[in-house]
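Researcher: Sit down with what I've pasted below and flag anything odd:
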Amino acid sequence: MTEVVYRIVEHDGGWAYRLGDTYSETFPNAGAARAAAVRASREQRVSDATAWIEFETSAGEWITERADGHDRPDTRVEG
């Protein structure tokens, strides 16, 4: 199973959570950033409907695949 890790980091004069190379909005303190990351991580685990999705690869190829809405990742918050 996939694991998604939200990391609490200093960012733009405040605090944010980071997922991969993407940062959230800036929060005034680490506690507020952590609370937002916990909310986001909980939402990520909620099941959804199975659907067909399309996306473009970095090579410009379009892919269509079935996304199982019940196949949710494990999540955690660090920091």
Summary: The longest strand covers residues 3-11. Strands lie at 3-11, 14-19, 22-23, 51-56, 62-67, 74-78. Residues 30-44 form the longest helix (15 residues).
